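Today's session is about reading a structure prediction critically. Students often jump straight to the picture, but the first step is always the sequence itself: look for stretches that repeat, for charged clusters, for runs of hydrophobic residues. Only then move on to the predicted structure, which in these notes is written as discrete structure tokens rather than atom positions. Here is the chain we will use throughout the hour.
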Amino acid sequence: MRTTYLEAGRPVTVLARWRPPSKTDPASACPPWLHWHGSSGTAPRTAPRNVAMRRADGSVVVRPFRGLRKPT
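Below is the predicted structure for this chain, in token form.
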């Protein structure tokens, strides 16, 4: 599903967005060499909500979803 949003007043098309793991599609296993620095040693509960988007000039970039607005 491709959705149009506004980035600084200019239309952009979101090609792929962050999707949290679910019970039916869990996150992949963490490699043994990756160590989390939290107090419990587990993965952080939140992740950056990044999206891949195509700007009006045709360039494809990955950036945080924060700041994108729905057109009125």
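Discussion point for the tutorial: The chain has no helices and four strands.
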